[in-house]
Structure formats: C-alpha cells, structure tokens
C-alpha cells in the first residue's frame, strides 16, 4: 500500500478519478433538492466524464510550467483553465439540452458558453488541488533527501570516530612487538601477534554503526588486555564484575577499548609496580551502567572530565560517539577512585537485541 501511494503516476489517477466521482455525487445530490427528473443522473455522469477527460491534459501542461516564474505560471494556469472551462461548458450545455430537454437548441450560439464561470471555478479548484498536492509531494521528497543525507553524514561520523581507535591501538601494540623482537623474545612477540590478529579480526568484521551485546564487547576488551598482559605479565591485574542481566545489553562496538587503553597507559605503564584494572557493568532501572576503574596515580579532574590533555584522544572520542548515538541520553563522568586511582563511569539506555534481529 505504501509503494502505491509513493508512485506519483498511480496516485494522480486515483485522486483524479475520485475527485470527479465526488463532483458527480455532489451534483446529483444537489439535483434532488431541485426536484429534477431521474434522467438527470445521465447528464451528471456525462458531465463528470467529460471533465475527467478534459482535465487530463492539464496535468501535462502544469508539469511544463511548474518551474516557470510565479507570474508566468499563474497567467498560464488561468489561460488554460479558461479555455478548458469553455470547452467543458459547451459539452455540458449540449448534454443538458440534448438529453434532459429532448434536443432543445438555443437561438444564439453564445448560449453554449453560458455558465462558463461556474466551469472556470471548478477548473481552478482542480488546479489548486493539483498544485497543492504536487507542492506537498515535493516538500516530502526534499525532506526525505535531507534526512537521507543527514543519516549518511551521521553514519560517516560514527565510522570515522570508530576507525580512529584502530590506528591508535595498532601503533602502540606494534611498537611493543618491535621492542620484543629487538630483545629477542620471539615467543612473547608471537603471542602478541596472535592476539593482535584476533582483535583486529573482531574489529574489522563488526559494523561500526551497529551495536553489539556487552558480552561481545567484553570479549574484545579481553583480547586487548591479553595483549597487554603479555607486555606487563604479573604487573597487570584484571578484575571483572559483570551483572548477568547486563550481559546481553547492546553497547557501541569497542566503546570500552579506549577506556581500558587509558587505564593501561596512565595507571599500569606509569608505575613500576604495575596496577589493577576493574571492569564492572550492571543494569539499573532502564539504564546500563559501565565502569572502568584503576588504582593508578589518577588525573586532575574538572567538571567530570580530565583537565587539559591528560586523558588523550580516547575519552574525547568516546564521548563524541556516545553523543552521536544517544544524543543527550547518556553520561560519561570521571571520578577519583578510593583510595587511589581513577574511575570512568558510562550510563546509556538499556537495550537488548529483539527477537526479529536475532532470527535474522
């Protein structure tokens, strides 16, 4: 049904026919109040049919003048409407005299054009409806184009923000592998390459526009942390505390990775004794709460975000992605972790994959 109404050609014929059927019904009902004979319905039907035929060329004439200057278009519409109204009036009068008055003929040929004004008003109404509907369709089409362009730009922005993460992470990991090769720790370097391959495979095969279950996001975060575990060995401790109800919640893909990367960079790598990273997630009402905490030296926080550039590109990137996906229905806040360290808290709407999407 929707495709039918989106087809302008079919919609024209439907509305055109319904309009003249409506004209015939109104004319016939009006004749009942004037106590006209039953034969008048034939006259009404022929008048409506003549109007249906004569106004078809108007569509093609109006299509030609649609892009003209307003005053030229208005004059053209009035001129064509007057000509069609005159022809239609002659046909209506002839039908009325021939059928209803049994072959009556007027004394003057000018009588054939009597009531042309009435026909002109009917044709103006038809023209007004045509231009009104066409203008509305044009506005809807432009609105659809604008929405499509906006969606494309939105998707491009999300892809750009997501793909910013891969080169950033790749640079750090390859640097570490290069160092291990120079130190002739080939076994350790090989382990890192295997885990890096798994992580990049996950990253590349996941659509950056779509959301993934938190379980998959934790799998990706764990791949990254296993790579870092090779680097830091016993210096890195990882703790997970994931609520079972939050396991299948939908989250932006790789949304935790830059937060974990920051924790590695500022809390673990900066301390000779290493550090601890805690990842928690739970459902709270209609929201999903996620937290990445560490026991590092922390940062200078201002208004819930790191002051200056101490947080790197990761936090800015994450906040921009969340804003693009959830508008204002999210929060990303940094707080001090007691007794020491930093906590990054994310709140987003709790969503789960529908059964239709799962079956697909």
What this model shows, in words?
- This protein is an alpha+beta fold.
- The chain has two domains: 2-150, no CATH class; 164-353, Heat Shock Protein 90, CATH 3.30.565.
- Helix content is 62%, strand content 14%.
- The protein contains twelve helices and nine strands.
- The protein has helices at residues 2-6, 8-33, 40-54, 56-65, 70-100, 116-163, 165-182, 186-205, 214-232, 257-268, 312-326, 355-359, and strands at residues 211-213, 236-242, 250-252, 275-284, 287-294, 301-302, 305-306, 331-336, 342-349.
- Strands 2-4-5-9-8 form a five-stranded mixed sheet, with helices on one face. It has a two-stranded antiparallel sheet with strand order 1-3.
- The longest helix is centred in the middle third of the chain and has 48 residues, at 116-163.
- It starts with a helix and ends with a helix.
- The mean pLDDT is 80.
Q: Any chance you could write out the topology, listing elements then pairs?
A:
Blueprint: H1 2-6, H2 8-33, H3 40-54, H4 56-65, H5 70-100, H6 116-163, H7 165-182, H8 186-205, E1 211-213, H9 214-232, E2 236-242, E3 250-252, H10 257-268, E4 275-284, E5 287-294, E6 301-302, E7 305-306, H11 312-326, E8 331-336, E9 342-349, H12 355-359
Parallel strand pairs: 2-4
Antiparallel strand pairs: 1-3, 4-5, 5-9, 6-7, 8-9
Helix pairs in contact: 2-3, 3-5, 4-5, 5-6, 6-11, 7-8, 8-9, 9-10, 10-11
């Amino acid at each position: 049904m929707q495709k039918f109404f989106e087809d302008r050609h079919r919609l024209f014929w439907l509305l055109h026919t319904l309009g003249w059927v409506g004209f015939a019904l109104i004319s016939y009902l009006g004749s009942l109040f004037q106590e006209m004979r039953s034969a008048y319905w034939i006259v009404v039907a022929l008048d409506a049919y003549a109007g249906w035929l004569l106004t078809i060329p108007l569509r093609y004439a109006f299509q030609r003048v649609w892009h003209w200057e307003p005053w030229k278009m208005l004059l053209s519409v009035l001129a064509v409407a007057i000509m069609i109204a005159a022809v239609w009036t002659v046909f209506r009068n002839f039908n009325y005299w021939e059928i209803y008055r049994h072959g009556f003929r007027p004394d003057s040929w000018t009588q054939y054009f009597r009531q042309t004004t009435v026909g002109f008003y009917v044709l103006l109404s038809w023209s007004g409806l045509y231009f009104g509907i066409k203008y509305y369709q044009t506005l809807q089409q432009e609105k659809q184009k604008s929405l499509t362009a906006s969606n494309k730009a939105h998707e491009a922005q999300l892809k750009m923000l997501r793909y910013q993460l891969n080169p950033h992470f790749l640079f750090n990991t390859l640097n570490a592998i290069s160092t291990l090769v120079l130190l002739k720790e080939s076994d350790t370097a090989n382990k890192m390459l295997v885990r890096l391959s798994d992580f990049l495979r996950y990253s590349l095969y996941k659509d950056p526009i779509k959301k993934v279950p938190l379980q998959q996001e934790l799998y990706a975060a764990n791949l990254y942390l296993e790579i870092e575990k090779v680097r830091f060995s016993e210096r890195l401790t990882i703790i997970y505390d994931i609520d079972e109800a939050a396991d299948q919640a939908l989250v932006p893909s790789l949304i935790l990775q830059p937060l974990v990367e920051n924790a590695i960079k500022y809390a673990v790598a900066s301390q000779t004794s290493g550090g601890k990273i805690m990842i928690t997630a739970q459902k709270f009402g209609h929201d999903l709460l996620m937290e990445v905490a560490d026991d590092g030296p922390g940062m200078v926080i201002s208004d819930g975000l790191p002051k200056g550039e101490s947080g790197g590109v990761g936090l800015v990137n994450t906040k921009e992605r969340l804003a693009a996906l959830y508008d204002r229905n999210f929060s990303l806040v940094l707080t001090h972790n007691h007794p020491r360290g930093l906590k990054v808290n994310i709140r987003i709407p709790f969503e789960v994959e529908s059964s239709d999407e799962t079956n697909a």
